[in-house]
Specification:
This protein has helices spanning about 65-70, 100-110, 120-130, 150-160, 160-165, 180-185, 200-225; strands at about 1-5, 10-15, 25-30, 35-40, 90-95, 115, 135-140, 170-175, 190-195. By secondary structure, the chain is an alpha/beta fold. The strands form 3 sheets. A 5-stranded parallel beta sheet has the order 6-5-7-8-9. Strands 1-2 form a two-stranded antiparallel ribbon. Helix 6 (about 180-185) links the parallel strand 8 (about 170-175) and strand 9 (about 190-195). Helix 1 crosses helix 3 and helix 2 packs across helix 7 (about 200-225). The longest helix is centred in the last third of the chain and has 25 residues, at about 200-225.
């Protein structure tokens, strides 16, 4: 601390560690012996105000999808697609809004030996699929939707575990691709594509595609059974 005498021109220093903090004290001028009063009660500067962190914006509420709504529904045995099936019976799900096309596809599935259910809405389909894994699913991409990329049935199938999904032969009915377009089928995560203009031949198309699928996966499925993973 620098100190100047108020009676003479003397100036001198006091070590900071010897200055009594927060007190009034006196020192003697070494030159004129004048008593110098010093007030050390200097208020410390207030601590800087902390800038409050901006409040976190609330996360937007997640839009509830049809899949979420169906998952939250209570159990209802009336939603089961079949009351009774013989052991080994194969089942099919038919989602086709056009009555004429639906009738032709149903006949083809009957001739191929499938027990077929024909829900009227995506909600009904999702409820049925909570209880039953179908062997075959024939789905028009415009079933219960005007946007083929937002088809809730196809979206549900996409999220199934692969161990379940590989056991469902999914046929996509669409006028955007040609029948048996394998690249389109791969891109859409389905097994077969049928264009509506070929619906009259759907039984032959399905029969051939099923045979090819069985042959393609035979070794793979036999290996799964061998290792107890089927």
């Amino acid at each position: 601390m620098d100190v100047a005498c108020d009676k003479c021109p003397a100036k001198f220093k006091i070590p900071d560690e010897k200055v009594p903090k927060g007190q009034v004290f006196a020192v003697t001028c070494p030159k004129c012996r004048n008593k110098i009063s010093i007030d050390a009660r200097v208020d410390a500067p207030p601590p800087p105000k902390e800038t409050p962190a901006p409040a976190a914006e609330p996360e937007p509420a997640k839009e509830k999808t049809l899949l979420d709504e169906v998952d939250a529904d209570a159990y209802d045995a009336e939603e089961k697609p079949f009351d009774f099936l013989e052991e080994g019976a194969e089942t099919a799900l038919l989602c086709e809004p056009d009555q004429t096309a639906r009738s032709k596809i149903r006949k083809a599935l009957d001739n191929l030996g499938y027990h077929t259910t024909e829900p009227d809405s995506a909600r009904e389909v999702l409820k049925q699929m909570r209880f039953h894994v179908f062997d075959m699913a024939v789905i028009n991409e415009l079933f219960d939707t005007s946007n083929p990329d937002l088809n809730n049935v196809l979206r549900y199938l996409d999220q199934l575990p692969m161990s379940t999904r590989r056991n469902i032969f999914v046929t996509l009915v669409t006028d955007r691709f040609r029948t048996n377009d394998n690249m389109a089928a791969f891109n859409k995560s389905v097994n077969l594509v049928i264009n509506p203009k070929n619906i009259d031949d759907c039984e032959k198309i399905l029969k051939r595609a099923l045979a090819d699928n069985t042959a393609f996966y035979r070794v793979f499925k036999e290996t799964l059974i061998k290792f107890g993973r089927a």
